[in-house]
Design a protein that fits this description.
43% of the residues lie in helices and 9% in strands. By secondary structure, it is of the alpha/beta class.
């Protein structure tokens, strides 16, 4: 992001507001605590550095929409070259290492194949997700908003997904012309629901237009074991499926409560993944830790490919990948079996190879 002031504070008030929001999201703070800081950043981003500084000196910051007492204090401190108190406290409390280990695999990752924007149940615009991924050092990010049947997550219809693909093209054009350093690519994707019979919740025509498809079960998680096994193996055999997302659907902690893992024949499902060249997702959300360790070890032993994904619903959650990296590193997973350690061209060739369309 371009700086909006020449203050000694790194990059000025927009960066300070965005960093506070990032750290709050990284610590899994409630969404309402984050929105004020992202809204304030969006308000002052179009303004010139001179106008922001003038409003600080005149005491008129709070006349701007979305600027309250807390955000005004952050802007004032940054313009004056001071580290905002709120930012300093968050850096101390939640700005450090999230988990012991995983650094080796995390440094090998080139991107993230599972992320959500405010087009479905994420909390931030697509461009904010993309900018943050780029700032974290990613070479690519796959945007995987939900499919139509998941109405609770505002899943995308064919029409809305078509519109989103145009937005992704526009963002890539813009970022290619403005971003310093290596080219970053926002890739077109979906987290597509696995329906009860194992089919995918989107048309083949739309699936063929995407770069990467994550297929996940979100409903009837307590289905009979044999039926769930048939459901999942059918989805894995679908030529459009690239990644099997959070395979057990379990929740082990967090404000959504605890949820038991789905029952299925894990060996049969993972053998299907290996046979069809589908990656098993190591979902890095702390409340998921999916697959559980025993199943993850089984998938490794069977010879599956893997994708270590954040399943981020906010920019700060893109940092969650290190949780999955630590688990993979602990089990000795070869980084070359992790598809998002691959360069984008290799990843896209794998995602297309043998797929329909």
């Amino acid at each position: 992001m371009a700086p909006v002031s020449d203050s000694p504070y790194e990059d000025g008030p927009v960066a300070a507001l965005r960093r506070i929001a990032f750290l709050l999201e990284r610590s899994r703070a409630e969404t309402y605590k984050v929105k004020a800081f992202r809204a304030a950043a969006a308000t002052i981003l179009p303004l010139g550095a001179g106008e922001v500084a003038a409003r600080v000196h005149e005491g008129t910051l709070r006349e701007l929409p979305g600027i309250g007492a807390s955000t005004a204090e952050v802007i004032e401190a940054a313009v004056e070259g001071r580290t905002p108190h709120r930012l300093a406290r968050l850096e101390q409390e939640v700005g450090g290492t999230l988990v012991d280990g995983g650094d080796g695999i995390r440094s090998a990752l080139r991107g993230d194949l599972h992320s959500h924007s405010d087009w479905s149940d994420g909390g931030s615009p697509i461009e904010e997700m993309a900018f943050t991924a780029m700032e974290l050092g990613h070479e690519y990010l796959v945007l995987t908003d939900h499919s139509p049947r998941l109405k609770v997550a505002d899943g995308l219809s064919v029409a809305r997904l078509s519109q989103q693909l145009e937005v992704v093209d526009a963002i890539n054009t813009h970022m290619g012309g403005t971003a310093p350093g290596p080219t970053f690519r926002l890739l077109k994707g979906i987290e597509v629901d696995i329906l009860d019979d194992g089919s995918l919740d989107q048309t083949d025509e739309m699936l063929a237009r995407l770069d990467v498809r994550v297929a996940s079960v979100h409903s009837k998680l307590a289905m009979d074991k044999d039926a769930m096994t048939r459901r999942m193996t059918a989805a894995v055999a679908n030529p459009f499926t690239n990644v099997l997302g959070h395979c057990t659907g379990r929740l082990v902690t967090g404000n959504r409560g605890i949820r038991k893992q789905s029952e299925f024949d894990a060996r049969a499902v993972f053998e299907a993944c290996a046979a069809h060249d589908v990656a098993v997702e190591i979902n890095s959300r702390p409340e998921r830790r999916d697959p559980p360790t025993k199943l993850l070890q089984l998938a490794i032993d069977i010879g599956c490919l893997f994708s270590i994904d954040s399943d981020a619903h906010a920019p700060g959650q893109l940092d969650f990948q290190v949780y999955g990296c630590a688990r993979a590193e602990e089990l000795g997973l070869d980084p070359d079996r992790i598809v998002n350690t691959w360069p984008a061209d290799r990843l896209l060739a794998w995602a297309r190879q043998g797929r329909a369309g």
